[in-house]
């Protein structure tokens, strides 16, 4: 069998037989196709070639252009060197399924005058008709591949839309035909349930990860061969479980897309996740999940909101600021940034500085956070307080029903370890003792399994010692719930827990500053649509622990009649404290006066005091102190009374008025009103009132 297109100079060069299969599955199972391709060697021999080289480096590689083919590149290189008289394949589609490789091969064969041979005919690229025919065949080969791919993908997508396409099962599930079923291993089931419980309880995937690390608990992972193994968890393990809707009993398909690119290393493939609205299929309640679909979505939304972006609050952290991530500027709409100051870095300050940091815009507002947090706490406890007792009783009841999750996990690990040890013992016992090559390895496995059992038993014992069972007193629990404010302010209360409570009832807080009134204006958006406005006086820096204005006003009046030592006693008797919560002493009163520039009490040199206390004023009028006090309470005599349990202060000028003289005359004429003691009668104690 000869062809007029095969010339002598073609036969002088060698012929290349190109053999290719598109996938490893075809190489293993489509043996007949491989045999037919290798049989093309006989056709080359019949055409007159004696030197034939077979190139089968690309077995299991697609010709669509998505992967690099070393065999095809070697064939093209040989053609370019002019060493090849013919390239042969069973069908020309074996050479290439994309225009780039196909046109490159045709052009090189035309330049060096190399013919192409398949089972049907011989093509000479230097002939215009053959080159046209090869171009058409190349386009048809590429189109055929795309058509087959589109048909298969359409059938695949249609099956996925019905929820019947099960490609692979994540850890915790197994494939049962066209649906998912839970892994029959109870240890795996309980571990996955524990992941969702801890994420919901602690509020973030990272805190759940730290909890698993703290208690040295492992989680199941599925290997590439489908087996389940146990290892120390990482963040990706927990986050994948939270994001995967299959654990909520839903079927999902089309969550990712493949993006191909080219780099110096060749073709690169990247897998990118699509937004949920672009998924091909999402059908809840298709199979049994580890949590309900509603709970799975709530946990996923909570974890997603932990990302501190504009529309999310961010995860609660350990800082003392109660409104971190919740408070927004009313003027520009941005979230307020937070920083801590003070010696211990525990005093929060909210400021709208994001525009200044990002775009060099002027700062909007800034204010101290302690007063704002206190106001939000009072409003929150007022709202939550009525249900605190009922919530505490319900929480105690739920806690009594819950098992010790850590100990239960250790017990499941112990049961699995004991099974592994028993299995190793049975293998060792069944072996021939004389065959030490086998029994030695089995004995080592048995000892390793026993050591693992002992290790888990030690963990359980250590856990029982570290966390003994505590009996909860219902009466004390109810008392503690009724005093919710003390529980909230306790140093042992976790700041993250308080922030989670705040975010449960408050959606957002919008803040502004009324410069004219020197007030901080807070608009609280409560969950449920209710809004409330708060106005707080804006303090200057350093006024958080300053002395109360009422105390300062009282001291300004007390210095008219009393020294610092007496003033300290009066303030303590009225239960007043310093700005730092301390009792008053003479030194602290002196320091406070010096700070606010209040003059010290100085007795008059001539003995005529312009201001008198109650006893001295009554003695001056010649009436009983009780009579004068009643008149002052009734407003008949002008007097100062700064504190309820403190002295009365009278101006000497007010005691010389006609009202004072009338009071004196009336007291002396009315026998029901005592006029005071005898002028010569003395008292053992100096009076301050």
Q: Care to describe what's here?
A:
This protein is α+β, with helices and mostly antiparallel strands and 689 residues long. The chain contains 25 helices and 22 strands. A 5-stranded mixed beta sheet has the order 2-1-3-4-5, with helices on both faces. Strands 14-18-19-20 form a 4-stranded mixed beta sheet. Strands 15-16-17 form a 3-stranded antiparallel beta sheet. The longest helix has 34 residues, at 128-161. The model is unreliable at 673-679 (pLDDT under 50).
For this entry, give a set of tags.
four-stranded mixed beta sheet, alpha+beta, 22 strands, five-stranded mixed beta sheet, 25 helices
Spans of at least 5 consecutive residues whose pLDDT stays below 50 are 673-679
Task: Count every beta strand, where a strand is a DSSP E run of 2 or more residues.
Answer: 22
Residue share in helices?
40-55%
Structural class: alpha+beta
The main sheet orders its strands as 2-1-3-4-5
Radius of gyration: 45 Å
The N- to C-terminal Cα distance equals 137 Å
